[in-house]
């Protein structure tokens, strides 16, 4: 099952790179139509794959070792040229319960992937705040934003919003999303420190 999840994540990365190639290609390129068609096929396949993998949500997935911020930092290797990415850490980094860290990472990664795949952002930022009694994660982008109705409904198969909410509920975290067309998106994941911390 881990292998299935990793293959699906690889396909997402391939889709992001193809999307970037379509965006950056000359408008009159004879290959643009072909690339656009291939991208639509891949997006349909990924949509189906997401539905299949919903049954694997509770299954462990490989998470980069180290702190939460180190895990997020590995995301920079997947970015195409021209997309700025930074991580901001406030407070003192704390060791987290492995199961909690896994779910926080998967939610944060989903938000990062969404920013790259859907928003056409040129700047993406992840902020991790280690507060005295709470852990907060923000993922922000300067992209095209989302329709408020999609944000409210969290439609299954769209940006993985329903899956993110389910993950948040499963560990007692709160998930908030602020977005509007043309104004970028901010995702906040918040969890009580006594739930998240390993000690």
Write the layout of secondary structure elements.
Blueprint: H1 2-24, H2 32-53, H3 68-73, E1 84-90, H4 98-118, E2 123-130, E3 134-141, H5 148-153, H6 161-171, E4 174-179, E5 185-192, H7 193-196
Helix pairs in contact: 1-2, 4-6
Structure, described:
This protein folds into two domains: 1-61; 63-199, 2-Layer Sandwich (Heat Shock Protein 90). Helix content is 47%, strand content 19%. The chain has seven helices and five strands, in the order αααβαββααββα. The protein has helices at residues 2-24, 32-53, 68-73, 98-118, 148-153, 161-171, 193-196; strands at 84-90, 123-130, 134-141, 174-179, 185-192. It has a five-stranded mixed beta sheet with strand order 1-2-3-5-4. Helix 1 runs antiparallel to helix 2 (32-53) and helix 4 (98-118) runs antiparallel to helix 6 (161-171).
Could you give a short account of the major beta sheet? 5 strands, mixed
Write down the secondary-structure element order.
Answer: HHHEHEEHHEEH
Q: Tell me the helix content.
A: 40-55%
The CATH superfamily title of the largest domain: Histidine kinase-like ATPase, C-terminal domain
Query: Segments where pLDDT lies below 50 for 5+ residues?
Result: 1-6, 51-60
Rg (CA only) = 17 Å
User: Helical stretch count?
Assistant: 7
Spatial order of the strands forming the largest sheet: 1-2-3-5-4
At CATH level 3, the topology of the largest domain is Heat Shock Protein 90
Strand content: 15-25%
Shape by Cα distribution:
elongated
Q: Mind telling me which CATH architecture of the largest domain this is?
A: 2-Layer Sandwich
CATH class descriptor of the largest domain: Alpha Beta
Domain count: 2
Q: How many extended strands?
A: 5
Mean pLDDT across every amino acid position: 78
Whole-Å distance between the termini?
A: 30 Å
